[in-house]
Amino acid sequence: LVPSQVTEGFGRVVTEAGVSSIPTIASKTGGLIESVGTGGMLIEDYVNPIAWSKALKNLIDDDATLATLGE
């Protein structure tokens, strides 16, 4: 989880997760958008904790999505 509330120039932790085949759920802001790419999910309403919980639940409950994002 990368719940950044401010614009980041580059999401290093997201890139490291991707290299390790770990899917990322991140705020849809700044450099995180490019860093996540196809290896994770972006939360548009990133100030809303319910949006985060729904995305996490979706990732946990959907094995196909988890496998695809972890590639």
| Average of pLDDT | 91
Tell me, briefly, the overall form.
Answer: flat
Overall SS class = mainly alpha
Strand order in the largest sheet: 1-2
Provide the low-confidence segments as ranges.
none
Span of the ends, CA to CA: 17 Å
Rounded to the nearest angstrom, the radius of gyration is 11 Å
Number of helices: 4
Beta percentage is 5-15%
Q: In percent, how helical is the residue content? A: 40-55%
Taken in chain order, the helices and strands follow as: HEHEHH
- According to DSSP, the number of beta strands is 2
Biggest sheet statistics:
2 strands, parallel
Explain how this protein is built.
With 71 residues, this protein is mostly helical. A two-stranded parallel sheet has the order 1-2. It is flat, with a radius of gyration of 11 Å.
Describe how the helices and strands are arranged.
Blueprint: H1 12-19, E1 24-27, H2 32-36, E2 40-43, H3 49-61, H4 63-69
Highlighted features:
single chain; 71 residues; mainly alpha
